[in-house]
């Protein structure tokens, strides 16, 4: 009797200690982000861009699972600004999500707002970026979440870790590029360069002195945390002569698989292991476009960085360092390579995919056109203005308050909740679409979800203008990608092929060009959550919708009250 009581006490103490250790291990990280104009030189010219703290890319945030981030954003720039923590679930903290007019009004020039949130059960590579107009072209950085202290990776411990941010560069202010496109109704000017950690690399004018270099030792195991922060372009990524083993994506671990080439849609992240097992030397890391739309302009340049073995430098006589080896990249429109790559993603077992479904949505995603009177503001194809939509609704952001505020405070007239669960008309989505179906309607239509509902969404690309790969990102959630394919989705045929065992968990899914993808999640996070194409030109044209997830039972399942410093509109 006495013994068992003693045991009980012992266990209590052990448990208490474990709790204490867990509790005290979680840290709070305070940061100050000053959004400001900064002069930088790229491609032979000096230009003012908007940065955070004068850095391009912006500061890397490093935290552990369970830590809290408190980031005071001070807007010293001439544009409105907000910061979004891409992929952070924001469980219980929807006011910290960041998309302007969705969860907050923008931080106006001269104003500040403090984002406060805790990382809950997430590990891997995420990133942060501005979520106001096109500010994110230059306002972005890595957000790295390490496992809790004492927890290791589910793969060999790397010798080094390298964040790699792929960006897109214009020889002009991206906000001007946007302004011009909004005026003319035409497609915005394509970028002038891609960048790797802020540098375009050796293949561009005036750039080779500053090419990004990574120095490694033979035998090193390197964890590359690759982030596609490009504004409007899917990118292929490869390293000359080296194999890449994918171990994670969008802050979720994956079953490891080996590949030569990655493809990342804007918004996506991929973690890969690279072993420095080649002849000591210099190898190019390269990124260039995967451009799936037909007859659309794109930036066809190639960004490079250099992977350099330190011993190569020592053994080479000064000035005799060999030219780095250039890798092979797939053709710009190589959709087959993309499909072969993306269909290899699997979760590492024991995932809880919702089996029963409460909400069954079918969303067309694609471009559209608005007919207009020929003139300077009607410069899209055949006297039109470009638009984009989901289920034929081109999403319009409010301007007087945010959707979350309007919902929380019951402000009428800001949005409606009649976003359609299916397209208004069924048609041959990926075939030749009649012109009568090209013009979307405009509106601020949200879709309501009951707390805890199990949601399935079929995302179906359309051929309006052209079939095209769309990276669809959902805020506030991770989802399982249970199927994808080409052509028109056919539920009768496809349900039998759903992967409900080990589908990959993501926050951004590249819907195949001329195809479809099926995702599932449980609506367990109340708030107003944007779902949109992460190609910013498409988002600008309205390729978005918002899920309004209702409160559940009790305080823990309800939206907290807004912070006192939430910016006014
Ligand atoms: Cu990466 Cu709406 O965001």
Verbal overview:
The protein has 569 residues and is mainly beta. 12% of the residues lie in helices and 37% in strands. The chain is built from 7 helices and 32 strands. The chain has helices at 2-25, 174-184, 310-315, 335-342, 403-409, 491-494, 536-541, and strands at residues 28-42, 45-52, 61-64, 68-75, 83-86, 112-118, 124-130, 140-146, 160-169, 193-196, 213-216, 221-228, 234-239, 244-249, 252-259, 261-264, 269-275, 282-290, 302-309, 359-371, 384-390, 393-395, 441-443, 446-449, 454-461, 470-474, 479-486, 505-506, 508-511, 515-522, 527-533, 544-549. The protein has a 6-stranded mixed sheet with strand order 10-9-12-17-14-15, with no helix packed on it. Strands 21-20-25-30-27-28 form a 6-stranded mixed sheet. A 5-stranded mixed sheet has the order 11-19-18-13-16. Bound molecules: CU-O-CU linkage.
Quick overview:
Helices cover 12% and strands 37% of the residues. By secondary structure, the protein is mostly beta strands.
Feature tags:
569 residues; mainly beta; Immunoglobulin-like; 3 domains; six-stranded mixed β-sheet; 12% helix; disordered N terminus
């Amino acid at each position: 009797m006495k013994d068992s009581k003693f045991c009980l006490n012992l266990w209590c103490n052990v448990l208490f200690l474990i709790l204490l250790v867990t509790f005290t291990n979680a840290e709070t990280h305070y940061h100050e982000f000053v959004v400001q104009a900064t002069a930088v030189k790229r491609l032979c010219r000096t230009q003012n861009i908007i940065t955070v703290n004068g850095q391009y890319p912006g500061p890397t945030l490093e935290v552990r699972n369970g830590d809290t981030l408190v980031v005071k954003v001070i807007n010293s720039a001439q544009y409105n600004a907000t910061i979004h923590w891409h992929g952070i679930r924001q469980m219980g903290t929807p006011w910290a999500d960041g998309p302007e007019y969705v969860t907050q009004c923008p931080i106006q020039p001269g104003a500040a707002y403090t984002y406060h949130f805790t990382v809950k059960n997430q590990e891997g590579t995420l990133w942060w970026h501005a979520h106001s107009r096109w500010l994110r072209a230059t306002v972005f950085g890595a957000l790295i979440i390490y496992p809790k202290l004492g927890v290791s990776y589910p793969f060999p411990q790397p010798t080094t870790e390298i964040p790699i941010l792929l960006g897109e560069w214009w020889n002009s202010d991206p906000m001007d590029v946007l302004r011009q496109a909004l005026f003319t109704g035409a497609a915005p000017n394509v970028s002038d360069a891609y960048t790797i950690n802020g540098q375009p690399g050796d293949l561009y004018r005036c750039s080779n002195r500053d090419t990004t270099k990574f120095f490694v030792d033979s035998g090193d195991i390197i964890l590359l945390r690759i982030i596609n922060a490009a504004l409007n372009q899917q990118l292929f990524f490869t390293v000359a002569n080296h194999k890449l083993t994918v171990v994670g994506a969008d802050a979720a671990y994956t079953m490891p698989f080996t590949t030569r080439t990655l493809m990342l849609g804007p918004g996506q992240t991929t973690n890969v292991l690279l072993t420095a097992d080649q002849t000591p030397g210099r190898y190019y890391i390269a990124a260039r476009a995967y451009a799936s739309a037909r007859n659309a302009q794109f930036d066809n340049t190639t960004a490079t960085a250099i992977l350099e073995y330190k011993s190569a430098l020592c053994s080479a006589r000064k000035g005799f360092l060999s030219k780095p080896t250039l890798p092979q990249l797939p053709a710009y429109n190589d959709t087959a390579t993309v499909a072969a790559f993306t269909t290899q993603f699997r979760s590492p077992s024991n995932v809880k995919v919702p089996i029963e479904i409460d909400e069954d949505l079918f969303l067309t995603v694609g471009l559209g056109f608005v007919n207009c009177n020929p003139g300077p503001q009607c410069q899209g194809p055949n006297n039109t203005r470009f638009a984009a939509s989901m289920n034929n609704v081109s999403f319009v952001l409010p301007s007087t308050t945010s959707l979350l505020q309007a919902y929380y405070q019951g402000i009428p007239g800001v949005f409606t909740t009649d976003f359609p669960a299916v397209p208004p008309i069924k048609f041959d989505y990926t075939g030749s679409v009649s012109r009568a179906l090209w013009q979307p309607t405009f509106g601020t239509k949200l879709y309501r979800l009951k707390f805890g509902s199990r949601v399935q969404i079929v995302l179906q690309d359309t051929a309006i203008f052209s079939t095209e790969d769309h990276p669809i990102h959902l805020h506030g959630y991770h989802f399982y990608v249970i199927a994808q394919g080409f052509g028109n989705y056919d539920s009768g045929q496809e349900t039998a092929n759903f992967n409900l065992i080990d589908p990959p968990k993501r926050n951004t899914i590249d819907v195949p060009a001329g195809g479809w993808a099926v995702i599932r999640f449980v609506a367990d996070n109340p708030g107003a959550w944007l779902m949109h194409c992460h190609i910013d030109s498409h988002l600008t044209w309205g390729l978005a919708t918002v899920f309004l997830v209702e409160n559940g039972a009790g305080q823990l399942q309800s939206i907290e009250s807004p912070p006192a410093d939430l910016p006014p509109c």
